[in-house]
Specification:
By secondary structure, this protein is an alpha+beta fold. It contains 7 helices and 20 strands. The protein is about 25% helix and about 25% strand. It has a 5-stranded antiparallel beta sheet, with helices on one face. Strands 1-2-5-3 form a 4-stranded mixed beta sheet, with helices on one face. It has a 3-stranded antiparallel beta sheet with strand order 17-18-19. It is globular. It starts with a helix and ends in a 9-residue tail after the last strand. Bound molecules: flavin-adenine dinucleotide.
Length: about 300
């Protein structure tokens, strides 16, 4: 840690509880939670981690993340609060990975640029949104993508264009060892009334369908092609089931909520229960949408 401290120019928090950095409010300590000062700082940290084979994770705002109670024995790097430049050149948008998606959406709406308004209310950073190919109400972040800039573990910067990356429903082939630096989008102008209508519809749908009063990581499972995961979990009779302080939401069964001091093991128990019961009843294997760090795969599977 001493060596690492010497090279980090930004902030380094030692043994930092990941519960402070996940929307679940769950997760044990990370050895080093680092917000790099700039690209040079990031490059030096990545090269150091690579040289000494230190486990390294990239985290945006942790709104799609379940971290184990035992924590992360390594480095967590985040662009949040630092890589936050957002530039507009007519419809060409350049956004750094630490820009909050909500800010991007609002700034686009202000300029009558269409494409991302249906993602109003989706929490998280742009970096996380790209990796997850976040989307809502028919729109996905990859739809208007011009290019993505990443930094690899050797500190080299590369630009990917849409043809270089596969995007699908809550999926991208962006690699776990490449830090997303920024993205460029090409958006078109649209009548402001049409944009506002789409935004309001999405906003209303979100408020009606999601248990927004409680801490969660959004949808736990991807929707299988047969049916929505929430419907299957509900039909399996699991709505409202609790383990410790975690609950399969009564409002939306694909949201597992933290009622207070829930532990990651409470959430993983619910994950296994939902997978097992849905498989038994419908023969459908639920695939996780949330990203997990620090678990033995057996803790998550049936
Ligand atoms: C109440 C609620 C509602 C939600 N509704 C939706 C919804 O409607 N649609 C939807 O798609 N999602 C939804 N989500 C999930 C979540 O908001 C999105 O997946 C979001 O895009 C995650 O962004 P993040 O910055 O929090 O990413 P994180 O959770 O921090 O990380 C997600 C993944 O991205 C990687 N990552 C993050 N930043 C970087 C980076 N800079 N470089 C490389 N890798 C990186 C992480 O390693 C991880 O694999 C919801 C979540 C909540 C809590």
């Amino acid at each position: 840690m001493g060596e690492l401290r010497k090279i980090v120019q930004g902030t380094l928090l030692e043994n930092e509880p990941m519960s402070n950095h996940t929307s679940y409010g769950i997760g044990g300590p990370a050895g080093a939670y680092i917000t790099p000062k700039d690209r040079c700082d990031l490059a030096e940290i990545l090269k150091f981690a690579n040289k000494y084979s230190i486990e390294t994770h990239f985290v945006g705002s942790g709104s799609n993340l379940l971290v184990a109670d035992s924590g992360i024995d390594g480095i967590v790097l985040t662009p949040a609060k630092l890589l936050t430049q957002l530039e507009f050149n007519n419809g060409h948008v350049i956004a750094e990975s630490g820009v909050m998606l909500g800010r991007l959406v609002k700034e686009c709406i202000k300029r009558n640029l269409t494409g991302v308004e249906s993602m109003i209310g989706v929490p998280g950073t742009l970096g996380g949104a790209l990796v997850m190919n976040a989307g809502a109400f028919g729109g996905e972040i990859s739809n208007y993508l011009h290019s993505v800039e990443i930094m690899n573990m050797s500190g080299e910067i590369k630009t990917y264009y849409p043809g270089d990356i596969d995007f699908a429903y809550r999926f991208s082939t962006l690699k776990t060892d490449e830090f997303v630096l920024l993205a460029r989008f090409d958006l078109k102008e649209e009548n402001s009334i049409i944009i506002q209508e789409k935004k309001n519809k999405a906003s209303k749908g979100r408020k009606t369908n999601q248990p927004l009063k409680f801490r969660s990581a959004g949808s736990v499972f991807k929707n299988p092609k047969e049916n929505a995961a929430g419907y299957l979990i509900d039909q399996a009779g699991l709505k409202g089931i609790r383990v410790g302080n975690a609950e399969i939401s009564k409002h939306h069964a694909n949201f597992f909520v933290n009622h207070g001091n829930a532990r990651s093991s409470d959430i993983t128990s619910l994950i296994r229960l939902a997978r097992k019961t849905v498989y038994k009843k419908f023969g459908i294997k639920l695939e996780l949408e949330v990203k997990t760090i620090g678990f033995d795969p057996k803790e998550l599977d049936i």
